[in-house]
C-alpha cells in the first residue's frame, strides 16, 4: 500500500495530525486540572464540548469539501486551530468552554479526508488492505497520543503541551493541504460534474446499516476502557490497566495487518458480532494477567471491524458525496465513543464491574444484528457512482 504514489506521504501527515487530535481532549483535561486547578468534572465538560463539536461538524465539513474543495476547507480549519491552541494557555474556564466547542466544529477533518483519498488512490482490489492500514494507523494514534501528553503535562507544564498538540494538528493539516491528495478517481471526477444526487438516493438502508455498525463498534470500544478500569479497581490492580489497554492496542494492530493481507473480506456485521461476543466474557478474568490474555481475541478483531466499516462507506457513497458520507461515518463513530463510557458505567453501577464488559459487548452484537437486518432490506437502487457493498 505504501508503494502507491503519494500514499506514504499522506499516511505520514495523517498520522501526525491524528495522533494530536486523539490526544487533544487529554491535553485540555490536563490543562484544566493542573493549570486552572479545577475539578475533573469541569475538565470533562471541556473535553465533551470539543468532542461534541467534532461529532456535529463531520458531515458539514465533508459537504463543504464536496462543494468547495479540499484546500478551501483545510485553510479555514487549520487557521481556526492556530487561533484556538495558541490561546488556550491564556484562557480562563468561562472562555475555554464555549471556545472548545467552536474548535471542535472547525477541527481539521483529517480522518475523513484520509479515507476519501484512500478510496480515490486505490483500486477496488486494494481498498480493503488500504483501509486496514488506516485502521492500524488509528490504533497507533491511541497508543501514542494520550500517553505522550499525560507524560509531558505531568513532568513539564500543560500550557506548552497544549501548544505542542495544536502545532501537530496544524502541521499535519497543512501538509495534507500541500499534498492535495485526490479525493476522486479520474472517472469519478468527470461524473462529479453532473448534478449532485439527492441524499435519499444514497443514504438508504444499506448506508444506515453501516453507520449503525459504526456507532456500535465505537460504543463497544468506549465501554471497554471504562470496564477495564472498574474490573481492575475491584481487585486492587487498577495500576495494571495500562498494560491491558496496551495489549488491546498491539493485538489490534496485528489483527489489522493480518486482515489487510487476507485475500477474502469478511462482512462487517460478522466481525462486529464476533468482537461483541469476544468482549462479553472479559469480566470473568480473575486478575490483570488473565484479562490481558482474554483481551487478545477482542484486540485482533478491532482494527478489521473498523476497516470494514470504512470500506463499506466508501463503496456505498457516490463520489460526489463521499465527503459528506465519510463525515457521517466520523460523526457516528464519535457518537459511539461518547455513548460507550456512560453505557458501561451504568451497567457497572447497577450490577458488578464485569457488567461493563457485558454491556459493551451486547451493544456491539445488537448493532451487528440491526446492521444485518437493514443491509438485507435493500431499499432503492445503488446510486450512480457507488459500488455494491459486498463487505457490509
* CATH fold topology of the largest domain: Growth Hormone, Chain: A
CATH class of the largest domain: Mainly Alpha
Specify the helix fraction band: over 70%
Helix and strand run:
HHHHHHHHHHHHHHH
Q: What would CATH call the architecture of the largest domain?
A: Up-down Bundle
Terminal Cα span: 22 Å
Output the CATH homologous superfamily of the largest domain.
MFS general substrate transporter like domains
Mean pLDDT: 87
The gross shape turns out to be globular
- Assembly of the depicted chains: single chain
What number of structural domains do the residues give? 2
Regions with little confidence, pLDDT below 50 for 5+ residues: 379-388
- Beta-strand content estimate: under 5%
The Rg value, from CA coordinates, equals 20 Å
Which sheet architecture does the biggest sheet show?
none
Transmembrane segments: 38-62, 69-87, 93-110, 131-154, 160-179, 208-232, 238-259, 266-282, 354-374
Subcellular location: Cell membrane
Membrane topology: Multi-pass membrane protein
Domain Major facilitator superfamily (MFS) profile: 165-392
Provide a descriptive summary of the structure in words.
- The chain crosses the membrane at residues 38-62, 69-87, 93-110, 131-154, 160-179, 208-232, 238-259, 266-282, 354-374.
- Residues 1-17 form the signal peptide.
- Residues 165-392 form the Major facilitator superfamily (MFS) profile domain.
- It is a multi-pass membrane protein.
- Pfam families: MFS_1.
- The protein is an all-alpha fold and 392 residues long.
- It has two domains: 7-126 and 141-183, Growth Hormone, Chain: A, CATH 1.20.1250.20; 199-376, Growth Hormone, Chain: A.
- Helix content is 79%, strand content 0%.
- Helix 1 packs parallel to helix 6 (124-155), helix 6 (124-155) packs antiparallel against helix 7 (158-179) and helix 12 (268-279) packs antiparallel against helix 13.
- The two termini are 22 Å apart.
Amino acid at each position: 500500500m505504501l508503494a502507491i504514489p503519494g500514499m506514504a506521504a499522506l499516511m505520514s501527515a495523517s498520522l501526525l495530525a491524528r495522533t494530536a487530535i486523539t490526544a487533544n481532549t487529554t491535553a485540555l483535561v490536563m490543562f484544566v486540572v493542573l493549570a486552572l486547578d479545577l475539578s475533573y468534572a469541569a475538565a470533562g465538560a471541556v473535553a465533551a464540548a470539543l468532542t461534541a463539536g467534532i461529532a456535529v461538524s463531520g458531515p458539514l465539513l465533508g459537504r463543504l469539501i464536496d462543494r468547495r474543495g479540499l484546500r478551501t476547507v483545510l485553510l479555514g480549519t487549520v487557521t481556526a486551530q492556530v487561533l484556538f491552541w495558541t490561546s488556550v494557555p491564556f484562557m480562563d474556564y468561562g472562555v475555554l468552554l464555549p471556545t472548545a466547542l467552536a474548535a471542535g466544529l472547525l477541527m481539521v477533518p483529517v480522518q475523513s479526508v484520509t479515507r476519501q483519498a484512500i478510496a480515490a488512490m486505490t483500486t477496488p482490489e486494494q481498498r480493503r488492505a488500504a483501509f486496514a492500514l488506516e485502521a492500524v494507523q488509528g490504533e497507533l494514534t491511541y497508543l501514542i497520543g494520550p500517553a505522550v501528553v499525560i507524560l509531558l503535562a505531568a513532568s513539564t507544564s500543560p500550557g506548552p503541551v497544549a501548544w505542542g498538540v495544536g502545532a501537530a494538528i496544524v502541521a499535519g493539516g497543512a501538509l495534507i493541504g500541500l499534498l492535495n491528495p485526490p479525493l476522486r478517481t479520474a472517472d469519478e471526477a468527470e461524473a462529479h460534474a453532473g448534478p449532485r444526487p439527492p441524499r435519499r438516493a444514497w443514504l438508504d438502508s444499506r448506508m444506515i446499516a453501516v453507520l449503525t455498525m459504526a456507532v456500535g463498534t465505537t460504543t463497544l470500544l468506549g465501554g471497554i476502557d471504562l470496564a477495564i478500569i472498574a474490573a481492575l479497581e475491584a481487585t486492587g490492580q487498577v495500576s495494571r490497566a495500562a498494560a491491558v489497554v496496551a495489549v488491546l492496542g498491539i493485538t489490534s494492530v496485528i489483527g489489522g495487518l493480518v486482515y489487510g493481507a487476507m485475500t477474502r473480506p469478511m462482512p462487517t456485521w460478522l466481525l462486529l458480532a464476533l468482537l461483541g461476543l469476544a468482549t462479553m466474557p472479559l469480566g470473568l478474568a480473575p486478575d490483570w494477567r488473565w484479562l490481558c490474555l482474554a483481551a487478545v481475541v477482542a484486540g485482533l478483531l478491532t482494527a478489521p471491524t473498523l476497516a470494514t466499516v470504512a470500506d463499506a462507506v466508501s463503496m456505498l457513497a457516490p463520489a460526489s458525496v463521499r465527503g459528506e458520507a465519510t463525515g457521517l461515518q466520523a460523526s457516528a463513530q464519535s457518537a459511539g465513543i461518547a455513548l460507550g463510557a456512560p453505557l458501561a458505567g451504568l451497567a457497572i453501577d447497577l450490577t458488578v464491574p464485569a457488567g461493563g464488559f457485558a454491556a459493551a459487548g451486547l451493544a456491539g452484537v445488537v448493532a451487528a444484528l440491526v446492521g444485518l437486518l437493514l443491509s438485507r432490506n435493500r431499499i432503492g437502487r445503488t446510486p450512480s457512482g457507488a459500488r455494491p457493498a459486498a463487505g457490509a
